[in-house]
Write a structure and sequence with these properties.
homodimer; 121 residues; mainly beta; Jelly Rolls; seven-stranded antiparallel β-sheet; 9 strands
Amino acid sequence: MQHKAINLNEKFARISDLWSPRVVAELNDYQFKLVKLQGEFVWHEHPDTDEVFLVIEGSMAIRLPDGEVSLAAGEMFVVPRGVRHQPYAQQVCQVMLVEPRGVVNTGDSGGEMTAPNDIWI
Amino acid sequence: MQHKAINLNEKFARISDLWSPRVVAELNDYQFKLVKLQGEFVWHEHPDTDEVFLVIEGSMAIRLPDGEVSLAAGEMFVVPRGVRHQPYAQQVCQVMLVEPRGVVNTGDSGGEMTAPNDIWI
């Protein structure tokens, strides 16, 4: 029996909206989510968990309380729990997020950029 | 202050041995590890955790009890907890593993391919 790999580019091709993470895999109680970013997100934090950003295609940056980090394809960054951050991208950027199941994209901030959770693709 | 991203290719360039995972990041109690594979690993399982394989460069496959899965760059697979598996690669393949801190590469099998754990790069 041939098992099927999860092909990230195939998954990204099916995502048309921005800032709306889609789950592609679970590892125990953690989720791997794909998201397309462009423009500025809201400042927010996740009080209970670290959050991994891994850029698959394009480039983005994350503003942090004391500066920022720039990320190109093949680069990753861990935003520590409780640290406020604001992701942004000039052009559409394809990103993999890794975080525990149940984490909401806007964290403690809420608002209109809050995406539904647990949407698989 | 400019924070520094983790550049996967820079990290891989510093790994010269095979089958010996190096930690590049932690997300809560989970670790992101980079490893170069070539040849056949030992059949083994991790009784207590799932394990993610994400191919960054090259290609590999994982034999499973009921078949196998082929993985090219940009593809991932979750080996469920307790499922025996044997990774192998014809050419050198660069892989990111994600799993809880403390997971040993050879799982329940041990043997000479067991790598030291928690080695950061």
